[in-house]
Amino acid sequence: MSGRLPFREWVASLQERVEKALARHLPSAETVPARLHRAMRYSCLDGGKRARPLLAFAAGELCAAPAEKLEIVSCALEMIHAYSLVHDDLPCMDNDVLRRGRPTCHVEFGEATALLAGDALQTRAFELVAGENLGAPVVQIEMLRCLARASGSLGMAGGQAIDLDAVGRSLDLPELERMHAMKTGALIRAAIRLGALCGEPLSEPSKEALDRFGQRVGLLFQVVDDILDCTASTAALGKTAGKDSAADKPTCVGRMGLERAREFAGRLREQALESLQGFGERAGRLVEVTDFIARREF
Length: 298
Known about the structure:
The protein is 71% helix and 1% strand. The chain is an all-alpha fold. The chain has one domain: Orthogonal Bundle (Farnesyl Diphosphate Synthase). Strands 1-2 form a two-stranded antiparallel ribbon. α4 packs antiparallel against α6, α8 packs antiparallel against α9 (173-197) and α9 (173-197) crosses α10 (204-231).
């Protein structure tokens, strides 16, 4: 389509836009309590693929959504994502010491401050969505409901609970898919849904097609993560490579082997793209982001 930025330029421009918006919407490092706010900013800024904002903006493009609204929901998504990483990295959870190429929040600021930083990032995300003019009240309530559902016991938090309970034992493929769909996939599906809610209403069949896409691409993201944990270096990943295997955690590679996991990722990519066929050129960015997720190296 004419007038569209090449994909790499589009990604870079959105990453920069979201970084600047996060810096504005997070409390300043000087605001009391300053140590807590420094920890929040440390955990959110200067790193990450910003995959969820990319998906939100791509879904928003499909629905002709204003960029200003997409920016707000993208910041909320990144705050929720950052909170989950801060808590997942804690010694009582995954006990990671490296994230995005630097010490994890609890290593840098201490466990208590890291715990509070995660809590505060989560609540700031909801405050941001509730406090901005993102559409009719019924739409804004649906946005809050979507974000809450993706973050809670039936989404991200529940997936982490299953993950912790499954250490040292084998999950069958449906159980593994359910865990990944909750822990990683729920917030990715929410990113797509929130991006669409920022724009023109979709028909019910279109909503269902977009949700099928979200289910497949959410699972794809985690399968690629499992593959990279076994194949990429710590330097490339920005976190400790091979840690899931060393901790005897359930992964797709552990369940089916590396080559079958790669084949599974390929099928998920195809299924995700099939879900977008009815949207035509409007789904162009979603197609590009899908390939970005499938082929990423970190």
